[in-house]
Structure formats: structure tokens, C-alpha cells
Design a protein that fits this description.
Blueprint (H helix, E strand, L loop, with lengths): L1 E4 L7 H16 L15 E9 L2 E2 L2 H4 L12 H13 L3 E9 L3 E10 L1 E10 L5 H6 L9 E2 L4 H14 L6 E8 L5 E9 L5 E9 L5 H7 L10 H17 L6 E10 L4 E9 L3 E7 L9 H4 L5 H18 L6 E9 L2 E9 L5 E2 L3 E3 L6 H8 L19 H11 L6 E9 L2 E9 L5 E8 L6 H6 L11 H17 L2 E2 L2 E10 L2 E9 L2 E2 L1 E8 L6 H5 L12 H13 L3 E12 L2 E10 L3 E11 L13 E14 L4 E10 L2 E13 L2 E15 L3 E17 L4 E17 L13 E13 L10 E11 L8 E14 L5 E14 L37 E14 L2 E16 L11 E10 L6 E8 L9 E7 L4
Parallel strand pairs: 2-5, 6-9, 10-12, 13-15, 16-19, 17-19, 20-23, 25-27
Antiparallel strand pairs: 1-4, 2-3, 4-5, 6-7, 8-9, 11-12, 14-15, 18-19, 21-24, 22-23, 26-27, 28-29, 29-30, 30-31, 31-32, 32-33, 33-34, 34-35, 35-36, 36-37, 37-38, 38-39, 39-40, 40-41, 41-42, 42-43
């Protein structure tokens, strides 16, 4: 007998609950004879089949089914199986067919969710695709697709078109489904209607400002096309005009919009309600009104607005050195005008001296300075205190609370000495509360010692209630990382007298859960072996939360997935399935770049005074080749000065070892100051991360390169003979430690790198030299956006080093007292640089803001020192060159645009001692 059980359908979750309940009741109230007491007559599941979109499902989906072949039929397990499959989020419909009475065959019918792979538009492309995509909310790339959302998506697009003035446009959706995958491409065919012409614009209400002036300021004019989005911008402009006339609460809206389809025109009426005219007046001091205007632009309580304005003015005055200023405020009303008056008594202007603290026992003054970020004994840093000086008592009280002092009081007084003032903080520390004892109960899976080791609090430490809550979370995470789920932790704190507290952690342990199966879905190209290679967990392991989380991070670092989701699906109190769901990214990337370059470093903004040459870059990348997360790239750079072509193969493993590996083959031609060369080579590099947290990387490279000098402007040596092919086989190791907050625009942190290269005469190569080069950079924020940075570079070489492998320096990225490559020894005949076997460079910079409202622009003062030495034994601090300079920096996402003027303090007679540099990027 065949019976279709619709009770298990998940088309509607509410119906699922009702149907399951009804089926359960019908089974319970059947006559007793239907279910003999003998176990032999219980129905047994003899076969389980899974069909996905009409095709047999694989092993992964079967692992989600709680009931197994050979087990007794259980409605509860069938329902559990449906829930587990539903949790994957991969299926839009789930049904079960039950066949037979005593020997039961179950068939699970699943309908896959369809995901949107791509959204595109065709037709009249007058609106940017990006803008159209951003306006779609119901349908988006990477998310599930539902045909019922198409009509709403069409309406969303029409709304966008309406805002651009294309009323009554037609939008037709087209679906392209890939039968081999569960993805669809959604296209929208757009037929734009004509825009309406503005026939008339009128203003209504108490306009106040002459209409002619308003019409002049807006783009929406009579006789032009009507674009609602432009009108919205114009309304904001009008608000700005009224705000500038002190009507800060003006309301402007479209009161009337009449569209005439026959004539194709529209008439508009803009309603203006200015409300009260609000004038802000500050008496007794110069305070920018821009500080106060935002307060009164919205409807607020006057008392709050006055108090907020007073606080802002006092803070501003304190930052200017008027530490004891005071403000009174009031409101004057006359007719339809409101005048907000702030009367400032600025008092004397003082220069703040070093802060001192009295009454300290627990902290030392230097510890206070470190904890609160107060710099001392540096005169230029006095500005950092300003308004914050009066916030320090509150900060000090909070600092003491974190150390167990609940009743600390701080008073601020000043000792005045003429125009100078010394702040003195009198601290009454009060009593300190401490933790006398810590106990743990309810722990059976792990020892008390293990749990106590994960806590931050300890016996005798200060008592601070928030620390207890943080340690509750640490215990919960400890249990999660040990594979336990469902643990609940509570803390009971008891005051046992004499400012001592006992803390008792009560643990209601959950169950230690093992991973039954690991299910991988969504990977259409990427091989499962590639994915599993990143796993730190396997079936049968306990569900260690930290390992699961790190596995997810490793999969994301592969760079082939736009999304990695991990879900834990319980199948019993002590077992769960782990579901990894992926969304793969685009595999092909093509890039083209065109630009200009100057023959030499530009010396002024008048770039046309330099020799300008075209420059082009082309790049093709194919990722996730063979589903192995490997990447092939082909890059070409062409200019009149240099040509370069690189073929690269990148993969995340090296002979089974987890190391990012690069195989590069390249051809290049480059012109330098003293020589020009052709080079071809091949290299194999492996990158190993030593510490993700510390950003420490080890890089090893094997390289073979063949270099031909086709132009040499210095005297020839044995290794530099013109047209002599020089072959080099080398091995190098590099260590990189990057702790900068931003690699392009660093403001704090440090960077260290060191490389050792050994070129040995293998395979008939002429190479026989050893080189090392190290660099250390540090960035220190000082105050108010100022940053001090220094860079130290040191290089040494020995052996037969050809000119194209020697050290060179000079120019905007090394020593700004000479031109590119011009630092160091010169050829006596041509006076061209010949490079050297040693290099020592120091760069010191102070970067400071120029305009507070224009944070991208800053100034810089620098000092460069160093030299290139022909031989190692010549290295000496007495032989270094010196340069100082000033410049401007404009911050961009790819690093600053730099304009710098450098003075060479050791320029030989007859040579330039002032140079101008224009560069993009930080000094390196």
C-alpha cells in the first residue's frame, strides 16, 4: 500500500506543526490490535532514498537523516531529519513519502534553493548599473532566488527610474537558469520612457527670500528635464540658504506635482515654512558659530540647547588656554525672531605646566600617565590637555574602580604662576576591595585547576564586578573550546567583611559533543579535498569551538570563496553534524591600466616640463584552477623606460606543506641612471606565516636569472662587461614582522624586515656573492594628529657583485638630498653612480595636521642621513650625507601624495643643494 505523507512538508512551518500533531494523535488512538506488543511486529525502515530535484542525492545529505535503515520507524526521527535538512538553508521544499506498513521505505523529496549568481541590466544604459543594483533589496547576488520576488524587484527598479525622471518606463525580468548548478542569472530589460519637461515652478508659503535668488541656486529650472533626485538635492540647497539666513528649522517640501502625459510636461509647487528665525550670538569671545549651529537645527528643548552650547563653548575655550572661562546663556524673542545669546567670560589665558598628583599610594604618577595616556615633560605636548584636563577626575575615578577602589574621590586645583598654571590632582583613594577566595562547583568534566587557569581574577586581586562577568564568559568559551555545548555559568559574590569578597562560580555543565559528520555544500568548482585540507577537525573529534572557528578563517583565507558559513546541527545530545556552506567567487579577472610617467622624478607640479611617456599595464588572473585554490596570472607592464612580463602560478601548499607558494617566470627591460639591462629568470618562493596574531612571515626563494647589460655608462669591470650575460643562481630567506595599523597610511606601530641572499655559482652561473639587507620602521603618534616616524636601513654585500645587484640610494624614497640613485660613489670619468657593497640610511619625519577641517592634508618636516659605500670597510658615521626638508602630504587609500623640498647639507660645490620631489606612497 502506498501512502503519501504530506505531514512532513516544510512548505509552511505552521502547517508542519499541526500535521505532525494530527498524525501523532491518530497513531496513539488506533485500536490496540494494530500494534501487537511483540517487538517483532514493530515497523522497520528497510530503505531510505533521497531525491534532489528528481536526482538521487549523495552521501552528504543522507548523513543529515537521523533515522537509518534497519531501525524501527520513528515519527520523531523523521521530523528531526526534516528539521536538520531545513537548517542547511539549501532547500526550499522538503517532503517525505512513506511506503509499506511493516517494512517501510522512506523517500525524501528535496527541492534545492536557487541562488542568484549574477544581476545585470540591458537596454538604454543611462543610469549606472551600480546605482540600479544598490536599489534592489529583495533580489541580490549570492542570496536565494524566489520568482515571487521578481514583481517586487521590478517595482524597486521602477522607483529608481522614477527618481531619475523616467516615469512610466518598462522593466522586464529575464531568468537564465544553469541546469548543472543551483544558480540563476537575473537580467532586467529596461525600456526608458521620455523625461517630462518642467513647465512651471512655483513657491508657496512664507517664502521670505526673493524667489529669483532661490531659482538661481537650483538646477531644477523651467524648460529643463524633471529629475526628482536632482530636485531632492536642490531642496537641500534651499535648506542651506535658509540656514545661512538663520532659519535653522525651515521645512521645504513638494506640495504639488502635476504630470501632463499628453504634453509631456510637469508643474511643481514647492512649499516653504521657515518657522522662527534663530540667530546665535556669542558675546565676550570669538567662538566659531559652526560649533553651535548644529544644536539648533532640529526641534529641541531650549534648556538642553543652552546647556549643550555652554558645554561646547567652555570646551573650546579650555582648548585655547582659557581654563577658567564661564558662560551664561539666555533666549530673546521678538516677533518671529529668536536670538540665542551666550555671554562668555574668557578669563586669563594660561599655559599648562606639568600635571602633579597628590595622595597617590596605589599608583605612581608615571603609572597614571601611562594608563591615561598623559605625556609629561615635553613642552610641545601641553595642548593635549586643554578641555580634557577637566575630564581627568572622572577618568581617574574609573581607573581606581577597575582596581577595586569604589569610593575614590579626585579634586582638581590649580597653582597659578603668572601666565602659567600647574594642575594638581588631589586623590583620596579610599578603601580597596579584594577577592579573598575563588571556588568552582558543578564541574565534573574538567578540574578546578583547569577552570581557574582560564580566569583573569585570582586570590588577592582587586574586586571589580565587571571582571567577574568577563570571567563567566571565559569559562563558557573554555567549555565551548573543549567541545561542550549547553553549559551555563553563574557567579555568586559574597562580601565576607573587611572589604574582602568570595566568588563562587556555579557551573551547570552541558554535554560533550562529538562531530558525527562534516557536510560540505555549495562548492561547485572547489574540490572537497582542497577544502578538507584546511580542516583542523575531523569526524569523531569533539566539537572544539576554537578549531571550528580557525577552520572557517583558513577557508576564508584561501581567497576563492566570497562567503563561508558554518552551522552546528545537533542530532542528539552528544552528537552533531557540522555543515560548511560556501559561495564561490568569480574566477576570472582582467585589468587594464593606462597612465603617464616622467623620465626622471618630477621636480614640480608642472609635469609638462618633464619628459612625459605613456605607460600601460595589463593583467589576467584565473583563480581556483582545477578546484585546488591555485591561481594563474599573467601581468604585463610596458613603457618607454621599462618593459616587464610575468607569468605566475600561486598555490596555498608546497608539496603538502601549508605554505603559500609562487612560481614566477619573467622577462624585463629597464633603464637606470648608470646602466640598462635585459633580464629573464625563474623563481620559486614559499611564504610561511609564523604568527597570524603578530603578522610575522617567513619567505624563502630560489631564483635563477640571466642579465644582459645592453648599455653601461660607467667604466667596465670583470663582472660588468657590456653585453656580457651574467647568470645568477641564488637562495634567499626573508623575515617580515608588520605591526603597523595601516600598511598604506600608517600612524602607529612598527615594521621590520630582513633578507639574506646567497648567490652561488651553480649550473655554470657566474654568481658568487652574499648580500643582506634589513629595514626597521616605527610610527609613534604624539598628539593631535601628529606622528613621528623613523626608518633605518642597513645593507652589506661581499663577493663579485655586478652593478645591477649592488646597493643604490637617493631620491624621494630613500635620501631626499640627491636625485634618484645619485647617493654614493661615482665613476671618475662619466660621474655616474656605480653603487656599492654597503648602505646605511636613516629617515626621520614629523607629520602634523595643517587644517583641522581638512584631515587628508598634512605637513611634514624631515631629516635624512646616510650613504652608499663602495666597500664594506668604508662604512662610517663620519661619512654620511645629511639632508633636511619640508613638504605636504595628501592622504589617499593607496598612500599619500607627497610634495617635498629637500636641502642637501653636504652638497659639493656646483651641485644642487635644493631639490623638489613629487611622489605617491610612503617612504620605504
Amino acid at each position: 500500500m502506498l501512502k503519501f505523507i504530506k505531514d512532513f512538508s516544510l512548505r509552511n512551518k505552521g502547517w508542519f506543526v499541526l500535521d505532525i500533531t494530527a498524525l501523532f494523535l491518530s497513531l496513539v488512538f488506533l485500536p490496540q490490535a494494530t500494534f501487537p506488543q511483540s517487538r517483532d511486529y514493530f515497523p522497520i525502515v528497510t530503505r531510505i532514498t533521497v531525491e534532489i530535484d528528481g536526482k538521487l542525492g549523495g552521501k552528504n545529505i543522507r548523513e543529515l537523516i537521523a533515522i537509518k535503515e534497519g531501525e524501527e520507524f520513528s515519527l520523531k526521527k523523521v521530523a528531526s531529519s526534516i528539521r536538520q535538512i531545513y537548517k542547511t538553508g539549501l532547500y526550499s521544499d522538503i517532503q517525505v513519502l512513506k511506503e509499506g506498513e511493516q517494512k517501510i521505505e522512506l523517500t525524501f523529496f528535496l527541492v534545492k534553493k536557487i541562488f542568484v549568481r549574477r544581476i545585470d541590466f540591458f537596454g538604454e544604459a543611462k543610469i549606472p548599473r551600480k546605482k540600479l543594483k544598490e536599489g534592489l533589496h529583495l533580489i541580490s547576488e549570492g542570496n536565494p532566488f524566489s520568482e515571487k520576488d521578481l514583481d517586487k524587484a521590478v517595482e524597486e527598479l521602477k522607483n529608481i527610474l522614477n527618481k531619475e525622471g523616467y516615469f512610466y518606463s518598462e522593466v522586464e525580468p529575464v531568468i537564465d537558469k544553469n541546469p548543472k548548478t543551483s544558480n540563476v542569472d537575473v537580467f532586467f530589460k529596461i525600456r526608458l520612457a521620455k523625461r517630462f519637461i518642467i513647465d512651471k515652478i512655483a513657491f508657496s508659503g512664507d517664502v521670505i527670500i526673493p524667489e529669483a535668488e532661490l531659482r538661481k541656486k537650483i538646477k531644477t529650472k523651467e524648460g529643463t528635464e524633471f529629475i526628482p533626485s536632482v530636485l531632492e538635492e536642490d531642496i537641500e540647497k534651499l535648506r542651506g540658504i535658509y540656514n545661512s539666513r538663520h532659519y535653522h528649522q525651515v521645512e521645504i517640501e513638494v506640495k504639488e506635482k502635476k504630470l501632463n502625459e499628453e504634453k509631456g510636461n510637469v508643474s511643481l509647487v514647492l512649499g516653504i515654512t521657515p518657522h522662527e528665525k534663530i540667530e546665535i550670538e556669542v558675546r565676550g569671545a570669538e567662538v566659531p558659530l559652526s560649533l553651535l549651529k548644529p544644536i539648533w537645527e532640529a526641534e529641541i528643548f531650549e534648556e538642553w540647547g543652552l546647556a549643550e552650547g555652554e558645554a561646547k563653548i567652555i570646551g573650546y575655550m579650555r582648548n585655547k588656554g582659557h581654563l577658567f572661562s564661564s558662560v551664561d546663556s539666555f533666549v530673546e524673542r521678538k516677533n518671529n525672531k529668536v536670538r540665542i545669546v551666550y555671554k562668555v567670560s574668557p578669563g586669563e589665558r594660561y599655559r599648562i605646566q606639568d600635571i602633579s598628583f597628590e595622595g597617590l599610594n596605589y599608583f605612581t604618577p608615571s603609572q597614571i600617565g601611562t594608563e591615561l595616556g598623559i605625556k609629561k615633560n615635553i613642552p610641545i605636548l601641553s595642548k593635549i590637555i586643554g578641555a580634557r584636563l577637566f575630564e581627568l577626575p572622572r577618568e581617574l575615578i574609573f581607573l581606581y574602580k577597575t582596581r577595586g577602589f569604589p569610593d575614590t574621590r579626585v579634586d582638581l586645583t590649580f597653582i597659578r604662576e603668572g601666565k602659567k598654571v600647574k594642575p594638581v590632582f588631589y586623590v583620596e583613594e579610599g578603601r580597596q576591595e579584594k577577592i579573598e577566595s575563588i571556588s568552582v562547583k558543578g564541574n565534573a568534566l574538567f578540574s578546578q585547576e583547569q577552570i581557574l587557569n582560564c580566569l583573569n581574577i585570582f586570590k588577592g586581586c582587586p574586586f571589580y564586578q565587571p571582571d567577574i562577568q568577563k570571567d563567566i564568559e571565559r569559562i563558557e568559551i573554555f567549555y565551548l573550546n573543549k567541545g561542550v555545548r549547553g553549559t551555563e555559568v553563574k557567579a555568586q559574590v559574597q562580601n565576607i567583611g573587611n572589604d574582602l569578597f568570595s566568588v563562587n562560580f556555579s557551573i551547570n555543565e552541558g554535554k560533550r559533543v562529538k562531530i558525527e559528520s562534516i557536510i560540505i555544500t555549495g562548492n561547485e568548482i572547489t574540490k572537497k579535498s582542497t577544502i578538507r585540507r584546511e580542516f583542523l577537525i575531523k569526524e569523531g573529534d569533539y566539537a572544539f569551538y576554537d578549531s571550528i572557528r580557525e577552520t572557517k578563517a583558513r577557508l576564508e583565507r584561501l581567497g576563492v570563496f566570497t562567503e563561508v558559513r558554518v552551522e552546528e546541527i545537533p542530532i542528539s545530545p552528544e552528537k552533531e553534524n557540522l555543515l560548511f556552506r560556501f559561495r564561490e567567487g568569480e574566477r576570472n579577472y582582467v585589468g587594464l591600466g593606462l597612465g603617464l610617467e616622467t623620465k626622471n622624478e618630477p621636480r614640480s607640479f608642472a609635469v609638462w616640463n618633464n619628459v612625459v611617456r605613456p605607460r600601460g599595464t595589463a593583467e589576467f588572473i584565473r583563480s581556483n584552477i582545477f578546484g585546488s585554490a591555485a591561481q594563474f596570472s599573467l601581468i604585463g607592464q610596458v613603457s618607454l623606460r621599462e618593459k616587464r612580463g610575468v607569468v605566475s602560478w600561486e598555490q596555498p601548499y608546497f608539496f603538502g606543506l601549508r605554505m603559500q607558494t609562487f612560481l614566477n617566470v619573467w622577462l624585463e627591460r629597464e633603464q637606470r641612471k648608470s646602466y640598462s639591462f635585459d633580464r629573464r629568470g625563474i623563481s620559486l618562493s614559499a611564504i610561511k606565516s609564523l604568527s597570524d596574531k603578530e603578522n610575522m612571515v617567513l619567505l624563502t626563494s630560489l631564483r635563477f636569472a640571466r642579465t644582459t647589460l645592453f648599455e653601461l655608462l660607467t667604466s667596465e669591470s670583470e663582472v660588468d662587461r657590456q653585453l656580457f650575460p651574467f647568470s645568477a643562481t641564488s637562495i634567499s630567506g626573508s623575515f617580515i614582522w608588520d605591526k603597523r595599523n595601516d600598511p598604506f597610511n600608517p600612524e602607529k606601530g612598527y615594521f621590520f624586515s630582513s633578507v639574506l641572499e646567497w648567490a652561488y655559482p651553480l649550473f655554470n652561473a657566474e654568481s658568487d656573492y652574499l648580500k643582506t639587507f634589513s629595514k626597521y620602521q616605527v610610527f609613534v603618534p604624539i598628539f593631535l594628529g601628529c606622528t613621528f616616524s623613523s626608518t633605518t636601513r642597513f645593507g652589506l654585500g661581499r663577493g663579485r657583485i655586478p652593478i645591477h645587484e649592488r646597493f643604490f640610494a637617493g631620491g624621494s624614497n630613500s635620501f631626499r638630498g640627491v636625485e634618484f640613485d645619485e647617493l654614493g660613489p661615482k665613476d671618475p670619468n662619466s660621474l655616474k653612480p656605480v653603487g656599492g657593497k654597503a648602505l646605511l640610511l636613516f629617515n626621520f619625519e614629523l607629520n602634523f595636521p595643517l587644517i583641522s577641517s581638512f584631515k587628508s592634508l598634512s605637513g611634514v618636516a624631515f631629516y635624512d642621513a646616510g650613504n652608499v659605500f663602495e666597500r664594506r670597510k668604508q662604512v662610517s658615521l663620519y661619512s654620511i650625507q645629511n639632508a633636511v626638508g619640508l613638504g605636504l602630504r595628501y592622504r589617499t587609500p593607496l598612500g599619500p601624495v607627497r610634495f617635498e623640498i629637500g636641502w642637501n647639507l653636504n652638497a659639493p660645490e656646483g651641485e644642487k643643494d635644493v631639490l623638489v620631489f613629487i611622489t605617491i606612497g610612503n617612504i620605504f
